[in-house]
Amino acid sequence: MKAYPKVSKICCIGAGYVGGPTCTVIASKCTDITVTIVDINESRIAQWNSDSLPIFEPGLEEIVKSRRGQNLFFSTDILKAVKEADLIFISVNTPTKNFGVGKGRAADLKHIEACARLIADHSTSSKIVVEKSTVPVRAAESLSRILKANTKPGVTYQVLSNPEFLAEGTAICDLLNPDRVLIGGEDTEEGQLAIAALSSVYEVWVPKERIITTNTWSSELSKLTANAFLAQRISSINAISAVCEATGADVSEVARAIGMDTRLGPKFLQSSVGFGGSCFQKDLLNLVYISECLNLPEVAEYWQQVLNMNEFQKSRFAKRIVETMFNTITNKKITLLGFAFKKNTGDTRESPAIYIAKYLLEEGAVLQIYDPKVDSKQVFADLSGTLSVNLSEVVTVSKNPYDAAVGSHAIVVCTEWDEFTSLDYERMYSRMLKPAFVFDGRKILNHKKLIDIGFHVETIGCKLNNIDQSKYLFSCGEGTPRRTQEHRMRFAKLENIFLTSLHWDNIDELPEACLTVQEIVNTGLTLHGSELLFQSADKILILNELSVLHSDCLRKSNSKSTVYFSEKQEIYTARAQSRKF
Ligand SMILES: NC(=O)C1=CN([C@@H]2O[C@H](COP(=O)(O)OP(=O)(O)OC[C@H]3O[C@@H](n4cnc5c(N)ncnc54)[C@H](O)[C@@H]3O)[C@@H](O)[C@H]2O)C=CC1
Ligand SMILES: O=C(O)[C@H]1O[C@H](OP(=O)(O)OP(=O)(O)OC[C@H]2O[C@@H](n3ccc(=O)[nH]c3=O)[C@H](O)[C@@H]2O)[C@H](O)[C@@H](O)[C@@H]1O
C-alpha cells in the first residue's frame, strides 16, 4: 500500500471553542507541523492574536503564547491557508436550524457546506478534509459529493470524520489525554491511507491503542450517541432528584450508591439545575430529527424525553424559588451566582442560568448577577429579546459577589464555580434582607453552615432541615440583661425583640439593649409589635450607629398573603428604607 505524504501543513476552519484549543494542542505537540486557524470573524481572530483570548479555558493561554508565531497562526486569510494545507479541519458551528424543514431540530449545515464549496473552488492540490464539527449521520457523504462534483484536474479529496469529545472547562486536559480519538473514513485504499495520515498526527502524543478507526457513518453516529448518553445520565439523575425531594431521600447518597457499581460508574451523576451548553440539546434534537426521518417515532420519542426532563428540572427549580419566597418575588432583589453553563468557562450558550434569570424577571424580580468569567455585555445579550421588562432597570452585573448580595432577599447558585464554595457567607448574610434565602442549584455549598448562619436553604434532590435560627427576646423589662446572661444568651447577638405591650415593665431596658447591640456589632435590630408601640419607642431610641427596624405584626392592609412571614417581610422591607433612629 502506498503511504500518504506526511502531513506538514494543517488549516483549521473555525476558531471557536473546538477549533482553537484542538489545533493549538496539535501545534504544541507536533512542532514540525505548521497550523493555521482561520475564521470569517475578524474580531475573534484579532482576539486570538492578542493578550486577551476570545475564550477562557484553563491552560489554553500558556500553550497559545508558547506556539503563536512559531508554528501556530491565527488568520482571516482563509483562501491562503486552505490552498497551502495538506489537511483541513472543518470546525465551524452546526447550530439547530431556526427556519424551514427541520426547524428547531435538524442541524443547520450551511457553514459546513460553505467550507466545502470554498475548499473545492480554491484548492490546487489534493487534501484530506476532516469533519471535526458535530454533524448528522451521512454528512461526510454530502461533503464528499460537493467536493468531488467541483474537483479540478489533478486534485483529489479524502473526507474523514474525526468528532471531538472535549468538554469545555477541561478542554486542554481532554485533548492532551483523550479517552479515545475516533477516526472514520472510506473503506477504500485511499480512505485507509488518509486515516493513517491523520492518525500519525495524534500518535505523537496519544497511545496508538486509544486511536480507533471505523467507517465514516459509525464515527458520525458515535458522536451523537456519546452526547445523547451523557445527557441521558444527567436527566436520569435529575428525574430521581424530584423523587428524592418528594420522599426525603438524598440524591447525592443515591448517586454515590449507584456510582460505586462498576457497571454504572460515578461520572455524570451530579444532579443539577439542568444541563446546558451548546451541544447536548442541539445534538439530541438532531438525533430526534434523524430518528423521525428514518420513520422510527419510538426512538425519537425516547430521546426527546431526555430533553423534556431537562426542561422540567429547570422549571421545577425556578418555581421552587418563587414558592419558597412566599409566592411573590415582585420587586425583590435576587443575587444570581454564576451565569456560565458550567464552571471554568465563560460560555453561556444554553446556560440554565439564562432560563432561571428570565423566569425570575418575568415574575418581577430585580437581578444582581455575578460570574467570574461572564461580562455584562454577554449577560445583557443573553437576556435581551424575549422579556417585557426594561433590562437596564432590573438587571445589574456586579464585579464581585459581595456587591451582588447588597439588599438582596436570596442567593441563587446557577454555576458550580469553585470560588462560590469559599465565599464569606456571614458577610453575604449581613448585606441581605431577612429572612435571607439560598437556592443551591448545583449542590456545592455547605448547607448546614448556611442554615447555622441564619439562611433558609433549598437545594436539588433533598429536603434540608431549615429551622428558624433567629432568636427573639419577648419584652425588655427591668432585669432583662441580667436574666439573658443567666440563660447564656449573648445580648450582643440579639436581632429581634418582640414588644408585647407598651407598659414600662416591658420596655424599661430597651434603650440599654439597643446601646449594647450598637456598641458591639451590629447588623441591625428588628422590633416586632404594634404601630402604637413604635410611636413611643421612637421617642426613647435615638441611636446614630444602629438601624432599628420595625415589623408591625398587627397591620394587615397591603398584604398580598395571609402568611405571617410574608407580611412581616414586606413591612420590614419598607421600613428598612425609611426608618432610622
Ligand atoms: N463547544 C464544544 O465543547 C464542542 C463543540 N463541538 C462541535 O464543534 C463544532 C464547533 O463548535 P464550537 O467551536 O463550539 O463553535 P463556535 O461557534 O465557538 O466556533 C465556530 C466558528 O466557526 C466560524 N465559522 C463559521 N462559518 C465559517 C466559515 N464559512 N468560514 C470560516 N469560519 C467560519 C465562526 O465564525 C466561529 O468562530 C460544532 O459542530 C459543535 O457541535 C464538538 C465538541 C465539543
Ligand atoms: O459535543 C460537545 O460539545 C461536548 O459536550 C459535552 O461537553 P460540554 O457540553 O462542554 O460540558 P459537560 O461537562 O458535558 O457539561 C454539560 C452540561 O451538563 C451539566 N452536568 C454535567 C455533569 C453532571 O454530572 N451534571 C450536570 O448537570 C453541566 O453543568 C453542563 O451544564 C461532552 O461532555 C463532551 O464530551 C462533548 O464533546
UniProtKB/TrEMBL annotation:
Residues annotated as binding NAD(+) are: 14-19, 39, 44, 92-96, 133-134, 168, 279-282, 349
**Single annotated GO MF:** endonuclease activity
Can you state which reaction this protein catalyses? UDP-alpha-D-glucose + 2 NAD(+) + H2O = UDP-alpha-D-glucuronate + 2 NADH + 3 H(+)
Question: Any idea of its EC number?
Answer: 1.1.1.22
Q: Biological process (GO) annotations?
A: glycosaminoglycan biosynthetic process; tRNA processing
InterPro entries documented for this protein? 6-PGluconate_DH-like_C_sf, NAD(P)-bd_dom_sf, RibonucZ/Hydroxyglut_hydro, tRNase_Z_dom, UDP-Glc/GDP-Man, UDP-Glc/GDP-Man_DH_C, UDP-Glc/GDP-Man_DH_C_sf, UDP-Glc/GDP-Man_DH_dimer
A single GO CC term, please?
Answer: nucleus
Q: Where is the active site?
A: C279 (nucleophile)
Q: Which of UniProt's keywords are assigned here?
A: NAD, Oxidoreductase
Spell out the family assignment given in the record's similarity comment: Belongs to the UDP-glucose/GDP-mannose dehydrogenase family.
Q: What is this protein called?
A: UDP-glucose 6-dehydrogenase
Source organism per UniProt: Artemia franciscana
Top-level taxonomy: Eukaryota, Metazoa, Ecdysozoa, Arthropoda, Crustacea
